[in-house]
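ingest -> validate -> predict -> emit
validate: passed (alphabet ok, no gaps, 623 aa)
predict: started
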Amino acid sequence: MNLLTVENISKSYGEVELFSNISFGINEGQKIALVAKNGSGKTSILNIMSGKDTSSTGQITKRKGIRISFLAQEPSLNPELTVEETIFASDNEILKVIGNYEAALANSDDQDAYQKAFEAMDRHQAWDFETQYKQILYKLNLTNLNQKVNVLSGGQKKRLALANALINKPDLLILDEPTNHLDLEMIEWLEEFFKKENLTLFMVTHDRYFLERVCNEIIELDGNQLYPYKGNYSYYLEKREARIEREAVEQHKNKILFKKELDWMRRQPKARTTKSKSRIDDFHDIKAAAKKRRTEHEVQLELNMERLGSKIVELHNLVKSFGDKTLLQKFSYNFTKGERVGIIGKNGTGKSTFLNILTGKESLDSGKIVVGETIKFGYYTQKGIQIKEGQKVIDVIRAFGDYIPLKKGRQISAQQLLERFLFDRKKQYDFVEKLSGGERKRLYLCTVLIQNPNFLILDEPTNDLDIVTLNVLESFLLDFPGCLIVVSHDRYFMDKIVDHLFVFRGEGKIEDFPGNYSDFRTYEDSITIEERATPTKKDKEEKNDWRDKESSRKLSYHEQKELKQLESAIEKLEVKKEELQAKFSDNSLDGEQINEISIQLGEIEQELEGKTERWFELSALEN
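emit:
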């Protein structure tokens, strides 16, 4: 059953055309993601569909009587209402039934009104509604129901708007970056919620695991053309690659035809017959097709990074509290060359505060941080770029110099650098305030990286970035030779980039886990409730809290030797795995080569899983 149809909609801002005459439909039960590059107008399409904006052409047709909820990137909420009042202020029939029942309950004299209200509660199954919506609010960490909206953070407002959308159980739910401002546990809960609830979804998200596990169709907007793919993210990648290969073959044919037609045009006399005029028109179409180019950009930066010395960063007994809330409790750690650390934990456990302390933006209650003389921090914060009125994109980069030094004494201009960050020459002279949210984040990321840091700290770098830009950033970070700390709720990104995790448990507890996020989830899921309740023994640096210390048996000499060999083997396998994954970015690979690499990657992952499992077994016995 069709719920909504988009017919020939267009949107422009001044001379900039985002999209024109695009059409698609949404049927009941579909869970669709819209994928496109930043600046292509994804948010504009959602706004037009939800009625928040208008199209200059075409129309939106909705099935009569359907309920639509829209989660905007920046939701608009009444600041004077409380969290609970915001929920009850929504246009929901069950909420009205509950309101009528409470009013009838307060007016005990009118027994007829009370009886009708009571029956309506039964009829709409409203008795469980309060429990249901409070569960959703609890999962989204909105437990203070009497808190006013005007004192909520931006993230809390987004989560409240999401809760409202879910509680209303609409026929169609339109979502703009639903995973932004959610911690990892919330995202995984939301995935499960969408799997079990019979909802129709249309969303924009950069979270590739979310795309994989929730969506059953992906629509790609590329060059003002819509390409539908009836499957999840893996299916989309496979079919998109096949489409690009077909286009390349077709383009080659067009080039040959173009050359023939060009020869014919040059031989023609000035007078044209009707027949040749028709052929001229055809020629112009062929020329346009032949000159069409795919703009699949890649960043290839070889910045002249400051050499890392022997001393990197040492943390000694760090303590930090805000009031009665402890964020760091005697945390110690010594960073080594080339470390790639991911930071995970629930919202409010101190992840961003830790980064601010590390970079000197926040003071400690006690403890000491020793930073090596050669260390140069590059800090990408959630605040993003500070926009100055009238400032153009090129001006932002030129503030750091007209030329950027590269390795081997080479250099590139500010303009060339911006091109490598996907800003063409025309876009470089746009005003910064005209950029989309994702484009601003990309520009801000550029300003951090061009300062040649050797210790890079990224706080939620993936928010608002499209998948193309994420791949660009991942490629850069995989080649980055310095130290790296990443806070991100993007599990795909974390799995690809980091080697181990700092797990912020709350109440000042930080654990060091030797693996990426998927490894951590696998390990956590394998622990029984009883094992979770068993107290663990901490070592001096609190680096091994994830281990089960209950066993008193010592490792034998051969087991100790095996453990060391496993560590070395796992490290080598991880390197091989990264090398194979990196090969997928080579656009010249054919289908057979991709299949061969996939088989090799599967074998390495299987071997890695077996060795890691054995490593866990031996590590659990080591005191």
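The first helix runs from residue 42 to 50.
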